[in-house]
User: Fold these one by one.
Assistant:
Number 1:
Amino acid sequence: MEIERFLNELRRRNSRGLIVLSGNPRVAAKTLALTSINNILYVRGNGDFSGEVASIFKEYLRGKSITFLESPSEVFRRLGEEYNYVILDVYEVLRPNVVAASTEMIKAGGALVLLTKEWSSWNPTPLAKELSEGVFTKYIKERISKAYPLIHYDCEEKRVLQIRYPKTTILLPKEERIDFRKFRAHKQLIRLCATEEQATFLDKFVELMKGKGRVLLAKGDRGRGKSSALGLALAQAILARYIGNATVTAPSLESVQSLMRMLKKALTALNIKYRVIERKGLIKAVYGPWFKVEFKDPASVEGYALIVVDEASALGIARLRRIVWKSRKVVAATTIHGYEGSGHVLEQIVLKNIPNPVIVNFKKPIRYGLNDPLEQWLYETFLLNIEPYPVSENKVEYSKINKEELIRNQEILRRIYGLLVIAHYRNMPDDLVTLLDAKHHKIRALVNSKGEIIAVAQLALEKGQNVKDLSKAKGLLIIDKFAKYGVDEALSTKGVRIVRIAVHPSLQRKGYGSFLLRRIEEEFRDNDWIASIFSRNDVLHFWVRNDYSVFYISPRYNKVTGEKNIAVLKPSNGNFERIFKDIVFLFKRKLIFTSNSIYRDMQAEVLLEAISSVSKYVFPNIFSIDSRDMEKLGKYVEGKIPYHEHIFEIAFLLIAKGIMEDKFSKLDTQEKLALIMRFLQGKPLNTLSEVLLTPQSKVEELIRESLKKLIHL
């Protein structure tokens, strides 16, 4: 039987491979039942048919060691577990996120098994069929056909369509000999290390806890043993009594299960007694006579002697920065490439924001060998390790990218995606589906005379439906913001949302991004607006410089970046300009009255740039100050009233009036920041002193002079 021979070759070569079974699920289940596969994870699909398919496989594979998951999303709760085979029901839908996560759970010599419909009719796009261009289906079929090692079996005709056996034998990590005598960590912990990189990390951790440095960072691709290394480090800290309590944080409780499982294993090896606290089957805390290691949500982390951060790049820079500030010692791991996609941008920003970290690079996979062909196929298919290609500066032309061409010439796709990854904190495998397949998503680029792509933008076309029900605006991100303001006229408009825009790193700050933006505006000038939403506050200046106005700031933090989403917009015609002015009025009013609550923790510089971006929209006589209050304010600026606290509410009204009437913009930056922080955000004087680099004794004088200037404008 060809499939059994294929399985034997995978095991003999320590290689992982891909098995595709197309057509009749009963034949597929019966075929697998006759093979030697065991230690299986079965992931149920999304379609109505998935329950019946799962029942068939339970019937035929009941004699094997198999775990059934009731939905694809459960895969993410199992990260860190190991199986020889993962069977994915993708009859109806193939989600790249699930494929990527599942693949990295497979041990050397195992295989990923995809169950598909009859090959000619299989259309697995996750998008609604009416929203799909069909490009993703063509792409994934083409990529599967090029997989290696691969066996593709037709369960209707009961014949092999394709087969490619592994050709090289891969050295496994477990064959690595680690001499525990070379390391200072406890020998039982060194013996638990799968690679010498983990042992080196433990050594650096011992140095950290003895006073050398403040931050230790494990950096590498998914599946390299970083989370387990964190668990081993915590066990070393407990053994040496470096800590009493330690906090572990990550994007979710699911994210730390590998760490917690290794911590338990290590404590057992050290003969240290412990107990476990679980939440819905997940380990939340491990504690013993003198220690407690507990998971806490990133938002609730306080200052501790030791904080361990898993998936640091997924926390967002603002959150990570706050955690580092609060802690005496930080041990963290960050993933560059893996099931959650490329975190290349976040990796760079993490390194810039962590003070002088000691870095240990993790390069060797722990479940399978280096250069494993299935991992290479996964990374190449979903572009998980893509980086910008070298380009030269030449004359450029504006180009409308045909998505079908991206299938025929995947070099162009890689070049486009290589730029898009630098415009976004984290690129998930599912993002590729939207880019390739969504009818309302378009790709525009600047191409030089050599045919190299030097700048690219991903666009989403939005068309309103003139509805007041917010749920009807789902998927229309800009229209949804209009609905939140209750401006009904805006709900029936149409526009272009710029999802991502990026320029090659070697050509940034040369005007190419602005040039691409202008060409997009020209092409879509018959729309009502061009807009964008982003959570990287550091790019706000680019949009404001190109005459875009901030009209919305999220009251909540973005789960990925730890910063608040900002929406900017430029009207394309006079009619929408009139509608947009109503929206800006509501936005200004919201900023004025809520900056001391929901926007209090935002950087004042960001609020100032947002206010400045809408200064041209003037609303006179919204706020008024009577003569008695003006007289009192006058006494303060003349120095007859010593402290601004005595005229706080009057100053607030003056600033609000200045913002609405565009008088506030005439102050200098230092003056505006001082007034925003003190009167709008309610920040204390010592914070103003730190931010403005001004002695606290001089802050009162700065406030007085700023208000005096504003009065006379």
Number 2:
Amino acid sequence: MPLNLQFLEPSADSCSLAGVSMSLAEYQRKRHFRKTAEPKGTGRRKKQAGNAKLTFVVQKHAASRLHYDVRLELGGVLKSWAVPKGPSLNPSQKRLAVAVEDHPLEYAKFEGTIPAGEYGAGEVIVWDRGIWTPVNDPRESLQKGNLEFELHGEKLSGNWRLIQLRGREGGKNWLLIKRHDAAANKDGTELTDSSPESVITGRSLATIVQGNPAQYRQTRRTTEKERRGAPKVAARAKTRAPTKRNSKGTTFSGKQKRVAPQLAKLATIVPTGDEWLHEIKYDGYRLICTLSNGEAKLWTRNRLDWTHRFSGISAAIVELSASSAILDGEIVALSENGVSNFQALQNALQGSESQPLVYYVFDLLELNGEDLRPLPLIERKRRLKALLPKSGAGRLRFSDHLSGDGSTFLAHSCRLGLEGIISKRGDRPYSSGRSNDWLKIKCLKQEELVIGGFTASAADNRRFGTLLLGYFHGRKFKYAGRVGTGFDSRLLTSLRAELDERIVQECPFDPIPTRERGPEVRWVLPQLVAQIQFTGWTEEAVLRHPVFLGRREDKTARSVGPPESLAPDRESNPLPTRKQAIKSSPSKSKSAIDFPFTNPARILYPDLGLTKLDLASYCQQVADWMLPYLENRPLSLLRCPEGQAKSCFFQKHAAAGTPAALRRIEIDEKHERVTYLVADDLPGLLSLAQMGVLEIHVWGSRADRLEYPDWLVFDLDPAPDVPWSKVVETAFLIRDLLSALDLQTFPKLTGGKGLHVVAPLSPRRADWKKAKEFSQTIAQLLAQEYPDCYVAKMSKAARRGKIFIDYLRNDRGSTAIAPYSTRAKSQAPVSMPISWKELSPRLASDFWTVQNARQRLESLKRNPWQEFFQLKQKLPKIDRNLRRIISNAIADS
């Protein structure tokens, strides 16, 4: 079964529990007991009385990746699994557990440090311990791959299961699942976070690090450098401050150190009030630094390790008087007048650093194990200032602030040639992501844009004249103008070489810019990101006075969306009531539509007075969102030419009088070849409005590979007496079930009475038969496990009080309502893609309508289906093992 589940640390090579008994030879082979304090073990298996109690231990292990080792005594050894995320008391959390070699019984008491260079090097504590009781014969259960047991520990208790995934990993991968009982906890609190300490000593991992001699820290660093081929470097040990605990008595764990940065929103007005702190906006690279075990790492926003690029900065951070810390700041290159210069920073990264780079630090997220993020910013900065060097002239500098008159501060910043200022709420905690607590106000506008082409240089064919720039909007790459200044001779040559490697014949911009049709234009794959400075935008959304500042190697091209300065950030508003949503949105759009409509004033939704022109206006507003799900797909259309309240009919095939803007494709159907319609663009979409189409249904495959679906749909169709909350619960159940099979899903409100759970499939390798068989298996097993709740048959007589899990959408020729399509119902609801976070019992299937959908789309900060067409996941193979896994997962749901 193609479940690709792996855990890389520690390695679990050549170990399998299929044979139940493993000697300690593998354990001893991997360790040098003259170097490590781990117990060697006698290798003798003690005899146990029939009623002897079996011990268990869970050890928290900070190897190269933090994980938890679950060990169960059996046959005189400790059967062991490495659990990356640790045990969870939430039955919905199915935690991967990778079988590793047997450990000796003495290992249950081991706490301490495994030296650098040794297998599993890192700190270990006994996180939990106690007695375990198997429900059935444990040896037989392990051989069958389904071990049920009860724990009686100091932290963990209740009933648990270990289920083996007999896949390509040789049976090493298991799932550790908490059963539903009194010890279960579904409130979202993880015991690994709330109780991180040892049950033996009360120590944390950080405390064990403190107890190590400085020589150990240096030895570990040197060993890692030797692995990379770096020379040995002697370093002096520094005295570290003791680890502190925060107000809740917990330390900042290794897993928490992967912190996403807090981001600022673009604003045009400086906020007022004494609670605001105003800082200089630097023109450099935003980096978060983690200091631990005498080693400093520098991370970009995309979690790229750039320590090697700024070795001088990392060396300076190691000298700080702290055992551990997390700093947030920006690395800049300063010009002679002290202003940050992005071009100089680019030159420095290319090896021509004329002046030392500086790390301006503006926030402190952790210090000596204490999580400072809940503290107000003003307190975090006070501690940061005390930590950093006092000179203010070295590689590390404190980013000072001004409180009070931010407008004057901005004016002075602009006169000095700075990029702008950042205004922050001094009384607020650190919160990852973008919010109104941090605002950026710019002097000169700057944006990241993607290079989509260039013009050839008439003077030198090794160089270019201008760069053609754009950004991604949904699946389209939009043109933003050209830039022809800001390059030096070396960049003109080196960048041209990179562009030549990406030349393509077809224009990547959609639509093709009319001003870029000359013979000198060359198109390239939109992969390289540039930093552009400019004064504004024209009415055609083209840059004014752009200047090239440098490359943005820390950004991916697909992350560059519509520029903030072109379309300022909008807040994601709280969910309104239906009445509020309709009232606050325009009931009828008056925007001009260039399309030859007949009878544009014909009323299609009489209860609302919405006309054909209103429907066309809606189609135009959602076209960029909707077309990616229509392109190249055969359509099945519900037409209501006289309006929703009158006669409607389905049309699948092209007929006389069908608008030419709709593309035709030929499809074999049983004994004949028929013509279907496809809407690939806005004219095609508007043609559907002209035809009075109130519902657009699409195939689950595209015309280029018609026999291979690229998504899977579970249509949850409740009987009239089933409450909506049960439909929502079922959607989450199917989401978790498919997640256990490595399939990520997306929810969609159908606009009717149901809900769709959709799983994208890429690459397209499973045919319709396999897709139907897989979805049918899921539906039937759910109906068998919960016969009072679900049915997998179409018979309406059998649906009373139940939810029909309709898997038949996954059959050749079957269709599903398209995302953003209207429905032929009186209030003009629409089929709306949402996120799992949004899905709740108070969000009914028909909540979003033609009248309030535009408000929703304008308020979104991020497309809830952003990754839908980017995911790489395929349908698991249907076999007995898969059915067993599904059955076990359903039983534990």
Number 3:
Amino acid sequence: MYCFRLLRRDPMRALGYASLKPSLKKIVESADGHPHEVGLVAALRSGEVLGSQTVLKSDHCPGCQNVSLPERVEGAPNFREVPAFPVYGVANPTIDGIRSVIRRIGSSKGGRPVFWHNMREEPVIYINGKPFVLREIERPYKNMLEYSGIDRERVERMEARLKEDILREAERYDGAIMVIHETDDGQIFDAWEHVNSDSLQTPLEVFKCLEDDGFPIKYARVPITDGKAPKSSDFDTLAANIASASKDTAFIFNCQMGRGRTTTGAVIACLVKLRISYGRPIKVLLDEVKHEQPDGSSSSGEESESNATRLTSSTVEVRTRNEQGYAFGIDDILLLWKITRLFDNGVECREALDAIIDRCSALQNIRQAVLQYRKVFNQQHVEPRVRRVALNRGAEYLERYFRLIAFSAYLGSEAFDGFCGQGECMMTFKSWLHQRPEVQAMKWSIRLRPGRFFNVPEELRAPHESQHGDAVMEAIVKARNGSVLGKGSILKMYFFPGQITSSRIQIHGAPHVFKVNGYPVYSMATPTIIGAKEMLAYLGAKSNARVAGQKVVITDLREEAVVYIHGTPFVLRELNKPVDTLKHVGITGPVVENMEARLKEDILSEVRQSGGRMLLHREEYCPSSNQSSVVGYWENIFPDDVKTPAEVYAALKDEGYNIAYRRIPLTREREALASDVDEIQNCRDESSACYLYVSHTGFGGVAYTMAIICCRLDAEVNFGTSSVTQTMVNGDPYSTPEESLPSWTSEEEARRMGDYRDILSLTRVLMHGPKSKADVDIIIERCAGAGHIRDDILHYSKELEEVPDDDDEHRAYLMDMGIKALRLVF
């Protein structure tokens, strides 16, 4: 790492050339023998950490104390207490400031235990009792980028080496070291500090001395990159520390300014304390504070940004009364809506989280930071550089809030029981997240395409009017509070105008049925219960007293929650986006089925409260305007009228249909994973006559799964392992000798046939690679009625060529989808 830092700061020296040394004449011009210029001193530095072109900057700068805070502690800027919790926040204090904070919270030698968490990842050193931080001379206001993501052991080793570098350099200057300070107007000036081994301490040494002096204090370093969300392992470290401490322990968090990372640490501590004290599910505090920031607080998150680029609440108002007719709120970000309803206790846990965030918002409200940066990003008159900064920072705070929601749900589950003595299960947050790929997929969607979460939706640009019937219906939708059917959610009938239907196989109630030519493989869009019965009867799955039905393996590929009411499928939608699919990319079968079970409970609860009826929605087409609209209507419902897909197919099996049902969520938006291929091809059943795949529209990602099972059936035929398959596959040739492969006469034709560089490279390294590709190409062509996988790649590549240079968001989307399509073929 030192070599990389040296290469960036002093490339000539890193390559073996001597740097240009400042002349000795300039150095000796000072009366005390010390150089006048900080640049000269920085250029001469040669330590492992305090290297060339680095400086030591005072951590306390003018204006670091927020004047709106009601309390001041000398030497400890921005000290505050979280109401009703033994949790405190502070900027990086002096050594005297640390002692003052300990006294302020009621501790003393042999008194109340204190657990201090230092959240900084940048190296800090105490000189004569005051904190200094390592910076580059050309960027004295900014943290050094090469330390991003550093762990505790490394940063503490660096601080120990920094101390050695300072002592070594001080020998050259009669026991003094040059440091820099910041004036009230942001100017930098240098000064000399006399040092020795006693006046120079690392943070670890400072707290060790306090402990040796009899103070009941424990110290932990949890390095977090400024402006970014904590890693899952950081959550685990903090949770374990808090859960293992005694009940009367006071928890103190600090970063540089005591704002961003400190606030996040305080929120995590309060959540864990709430869980330990009251068990699960974690609930909203009774004296919940309002979702507003105290006067003078800031939502901007950077600890050390310059005044020139700082985005504060004084320059940009977070929310206005009328943003082109509608005030965009945090719940208008679909991602947050989806993750809240993904978990059993998501709504309650997020309410508790929001209450905690508000209690910890003396300097920063994490929710409001997201909205503030979104506001800046959507101001077209702001220069592009500022908008890009706002987008990146807003995405970081959105991910931070997103992770806190997931962490709250983790605390509200049995996974955390063992950490607080309430059960045997002791699963870390990191492991818990690893078992939920749908959450990981949501997180990556923030990083890959943040702009889509911050753009003002088209439906919010126009004056906000009810488009869904009368005000009573809209009020009912907004008052919903189920764990899945929550505020602003509607149940929309699955069938819609313009839906694709089959041209060959007509099954009433089962749109877009398709059969792969030469294989016992079928697909269909989401059917009604009657449609499912007719489709299974068509496949010969219905048993009677004399003949057993042919076994059909049904694989449901839908990633969104579906429920049947009166035999008709309904899907979950948002009131303001009723036609947008609410997929959970990466979700597993058990999780989506759990969501559907909870959705059913929400429906039955609402039916009981409303006297046996339910507000539903459907899409209607108006020929005169040539447009579709979503309208609400009332339906009388009994408990037996509501079923989940798993219950529907279980009932069909009880009625004598010879079926095996599995839920394997898979769509085009999902990454191609080897585990998905295994799960699909493992559905192969020697006793099965047919394979039926159910998806949202019966078109798209379903073609990928059909191709997989066809490849599996092909392999069994070729190796002679399946007599059933041999009798069902017709005599059409579906393999092409390698010698007969055509030579493409144009790049367009080569791309259409999938002859991309990575695909061709794969065929060269595989045994019988060209033959395998030829076989797969034929299967892809046969499955094209349900979606053409190769054509998807070509479509996205052509679209990418047409994207304007300034449309980075759309370019990123097309690149992402094109790569995913390519990986499916790969």
Number 4:
Amino acid sequence: MGIKKNLITSVSLLKTVPNAFLFLLIILVLGIILFFQRHIFFYRYEPEYYEGLYYHSQWNYPNSTRGISDGELYKFVGYRLAEGENHFNINYEMPPFGKYLYGLAEKYLGNPYWISIVLYLFSAGFLFLLGKEILKETSLSLLGVLFFLVTPFVSTQIGETMLDLPLMFFYLVHAFFFVKFLLKRQQKYLITSGLFLGLATGTKPGIYTPFVFLLESIIYFKQEKERKVVGFSGYLISVFAGYVLAFFCYFIKHPNPIPWLRLHQKQFSFYMDPLKLSGPRDYLLVWKNIFSNSYQGWWWTKEKTIGGASLILPVGTILLLPVIFLSFKKREISIFYLSCLTCVFLLIDHFVFFPRYLMPTIPFFILITVFFLKKHKQFLFLLSCLSFPFLFSSLSARNPVGDVEAVGRFFATRAYHELYRSTIPDERKNLSEKQFIDSLEYFLETLGTRDIKTELLELKNDSQSAKAKYKVVYETKYGILSHEPEISFLKVNNQWRQVWNWDLLWLGYDPSAKIITREGSLPLKRLQRSDGTILAERGKWQMVYMFPRVMFDWSKALKSLSEVIGENPEVIDLRLRKVVPDHFVRFAGYLDPALGQEGIDKANLISGVHLREVDYLVIKGKGNEEVSRIIRSIQKEKPELFCIKAEVVMQGKNEEEKVLPLQCSEEKDVKIII
């Protein structure tokens, strides 16, 4: 009996949760969210770095190993827009307003995340106000805000610069003023609602806008009794005005609206591309994401988990139809409108879907849930409590595997700028980026490095530190060199950062060390026929290096390289794409020995080509393409015969020399008879 009595008492207390307690709980949760994402307060935008990142990314070099994510792209584009760049010249496929807001924060505050924080807090504020309008009770509105804050789907967006958070905010404010119009019947609210619908359309492609507009038009004509056409015309004009306002960054430099209208054809053509419209589609993806927190796109080979599980998605979806029925029956026009608006988003997401596209529905799902359970506050509070562990795990449990693997990938692709920024910030104060890059490039180029392979062998970690063991294999001009360095990682402001150690390159190496090479010759001396006819003999020839960054017409450049190297463009393409297109030349292949001096002259005419002398097989005579193919075939089967025999030593500060154990053929003056 005592246990039953205590349980009843606890439930009764939950039914009357004090507003002050809820407010303090909201402040506490908000503090936890900001604490675990505190790295955003230490961020500083670097215009030069992001310009290099963008112009070397997949947006300029298809399939570039130096990829740029959407969030990083919007940082760069936003800054360029704030600097006066024409929107239709860069990332025109996405409307500019959200990016422009981030760019203004970067330009004047040095940090775009302040916009994310402001939009997040304002979203919580407008959710509270909208809840007050619909639910008429402060405690219910506060419970809605608490539920909003503990939803990982939204709260993790503070640490992002995506367009989904601005889009959610503008649709939420739009819905708030439309509800105000439905309740007050004042034209100013309808006009303001239209403005924010226009701003939402100017933040991400307006795939929802026509259907939202249609829904609200039907409700408007059903509810309004007088001056319908005049009021509706004002609403229509305000939507267009909001969309024009979203292009403020364009009009301050280009006030003529005619080119602006015409240039929309670029955006339309981008999305109407048959390649983008075709392809397989799974129309159940939206439901899989809502109910199982998983997503598998056609470009992914396996199922992915999307962030932390958010209870509001399945709960709100289950309650959606009952709330539509109840609100229609009780003539609760405001909640009926929000439920129908949520259905519009879900309907469109069936055809164009990525998990983030559910963001605008989160505030509406919360209000739907609160409305349905408004007489059972204890269950609302319980749902918020159940959501908190998912939020906490999303913010705090950062597994270092992704960051550790990224370091290996940065090194293997020679992404020096990203490798530098993966180190502890305090270490960078004593090591300039130029010195860092020059030291890496010196070591790798002195060895004649053509390829780097990295593999994570072992990872040990606790909550604040980690130690990773890699296997690093260099394919160099002098043979194969491999070692297994150990690198330490620390968690700094809840982000994993490597403790930079030059041992990643080679044990004992540092910027003061010298790499000394004492070259011998190619192990392969001669290629001849069985009758003694010499087809090719060891001699001085040329390697072809290329500046990938000047391959503006990639296909044309590959074709030109293929003609002088003698290999398929696909082979050269894979070789060049392996490395980040930066300020350095990269190995493209050996000049086709069948071309002779004519090949050297032709290669020098290709923009971006740099030739380097090397020991190789020189064909006796000209135009012998068959011999050239035989040489490449032998090189593929026995690459060790084409490594230059050399003694390579590393000389430290005390001039002590350590021989690098390069693996090359031990044979000398090899003759191959065919």
